[in-house]
């Protein structure tokens, strides 16, 4: 979000909300002090991975949309959570320049091409052209990414 540092007032359907924003590092990007994560629980992740079953998908999308409506612009997701497509659905109709989407790649991508492929898959699932923030989950000291 490119708003000025501090509070932004936003009128929603029934209430006036005040969301505080802070600069993300020294980037100039304004991020809401309240964000939403999309890690639900291990059982959800296993069901999404193995059974392709996503319980309460609509409720999760609705919760993210409500947060966005109230001025939140920070959403955290990850490849391993199997929720990037849920985020994509929730942010439809929002200007991506106003959102800060953080995703994480799983630590098992050890080669440069694997990392690029994983990032491209995240972009596809998020229905996005760029990633705002990308990190590795559970990175070990021994991990070293080498470009071929």
Folded structure, characterized:
- It is built from 4 helices and 7 strands, in the order ββββααβαβαβ.
- It has 148 residues and is an alpha/beta fold.
- A 4-stranded parallel sheet has the order 4-5-6-7, with helices on one face.
- Helix 2 crosses helix 3.
- The model has no long low-confidence stretch (mean pLDDT 79).
Could you provide a short overview of the structure?
By secondary structure, the chain is an alpha/beta fold. It contains 4 helices and 7 strands, in the order ββββααβαβαβ. It has a domain of 102 residues: NADP-dependent oxidoreductase domain (TIM Barrel, Alpha-Beta Barrel), CATH 3.20.20.
Structural class: alpha/beta
Which outline best applies? Answer: globular
Mean pLDDT: 79
The CATH topology of one domain is: TIM Barrel
Straight-line distance between termini: 36 Å
Number of helices: 4
- Seen as an oligomer or otherwise, the chain set is single chain
- According to CATH, what is the class of one domain? Alpha Beta
Please indicate the percent range of residues in DSSP E strands (runs of 2 or more).
15-25%
Number of strands: 7
Name the poorly predicted regions.
none
Specify Rg, calculated over alpha carbons: 16 Å
Q: Helix and strand succession?
A: EEEEHHEHEHE
Largest sheet: 4 strands, parallel
Instruction: Give the CATH architecture of one domain.
Output: Alpha-Beta Barrel
CATH homology superfamily of one domain: NADP-dependent oxidoreductase domain
How would you write the strand order of the largest sheet? 4-5-6-7
| Share of helix, binned | 25-40%
